[in-house]
Amino acid sequence: MITALLMAAMFAATPEAPATPADLILVSAKIWTGNAGNPEAEALAVKNGRIVVVGRNADVEMLKGPKTVVIEGQGRRVVPGFIDCHTHMSMGGLDLLAMDLRKTKDPAEFTRVVTAYTKKQPPGIWLTDGAWDHEQWTPPRLPTKADLDPATGDHPTCLQRQDGHMVVCNSLALKIAGITRDTPNPSGGVIVKDASGEPTGVLKDTAMDLVWKHRPPRTQAEIVEGLRAATKHASENGVTSVQDLPGDAALDVPGWDTLRKSGELTVRVNYRPLLVNWEKALATRNSMKNDEWLRIGGVKAFMDGALGAGTALMFAPFSDDPGNSGVAMPEATGMEERITAADAAGLQVEVHAIGDKANAQILDIYRRVAQKNGPKDRRFRVEHAQHLRQEDIPRFAEQGVIPSMQPYHAVDDGRWADRRLGKERAKGTYAFRSLLDTKARLAFGSDWDVAPLSPILGIAAAVTRATIDGKQPGGWVPEQKIRPEEALRAYTVTAAYAAFEEKEKGSLEIGKLADFVVLSNDVLAVRPEEIEKIQVDTTVVGGRVVHSRTK
Prior knowledge:
This protein is α/β, with parallel strands linked by helices. The strands form 5 sheets. Strands 3-2-7-21-22-23 form a 6-stranded mixed sheet, with helices on one face.
């Protein structure tokens, strides 16, 4: 009775419902609104792409007209549209259209899959799409040119590891790039060589550029096709907004604009070009139409590489590679000056940092830039924030820096990270609980297509931390687990805040964009181990149904 009276009082305080029929109403649902003042509702109504009522069935049924779309909630859990804080949509879309190497179990299967794909391709074209993960192999080992050569024939081939920080190339691609036993490692990169000094075909981080400069450039048509596939995939996973990272901004932004103009966009895009091109990014933002569908939201930089590639920048060497402490990216030189300039120009800055040293360094830079440029609401971000020293964890909240993290990485890397980091360093790895406890604003994303795009899998990973090989069902570094509602908030409310979009999205409130998802089960009530089985039944963007599992 008290709850009903409270709901009635809250609804009475909201703006008056429109007199004309709604475009869409949702009834008989369990709506988690994300709004602390009105956390639960059973119905909502939409007009002109925005929410006009959030409340009870009776509040919205009076707005039903002959053309109103009605979604029957049937008691299912409804949440705000998922916001992914870190995607690579063009890369992901192109990989959807290419070969699937992630699930190969050994080098022989890897070669078979590449062979089957190659046979369907026109003679001589470059093959560069299709992600692999050697940690899935038994025993794990890096692929080599010897695994590719029998499968690729006259096709120059370089295929990326799923983290995007290393490739394996065939002999033909190495020859075209002029990579030999005498080629030195570039700054910020590694050319992997065998015991005799010959390149194995694996190139890490900036060494990949030695090959990429010889690859024919992507066409605009290819990018549009990839983005179209990525958009559909996002809708199927309940993702209604992405904070998208390059890619090639010169192709990605026009590609997204093509879909916007044709009315094909079913995901809202906040695009973030590279910091090294911040002046161009600013000019693009100032010259383009920045609306609720497509906008330039900030710029991104890189401090280091990745844990899987052994290029994450650490204070101490890796436990399984005593001579290696990772690498700093070349752009780390001069980064503070570029961040200072971009911040002064009003661009939000986010920086990729994986290793504990990389994270400490970027936090130091952010502190100095804030001091130089003076106080303002800047919302600096660290992308990944994967491996942190204990003394650096409180600094995120203290400095107002947002840890933009990808929980699925924890259950993926957790299969093998202990042997690279050691147990002690692992305590500060994917430190979700510690960051929240120190009042940091934790925002989640996927890093697709490095990891699956699904926010459901991300929530399950944050809540259980059960590794995907099934060997740690109780969770890897289990003290860093968080609650389902905390994970959901990181994918909605805080994800919107992380992009200065909290006034438009992230929660289901009157006046906000009508982006929401109907789930097959209650993510807030099922047992933690059952979360990953939840499916997205319906995705609504701007009051339009863009995905329905029952169709």
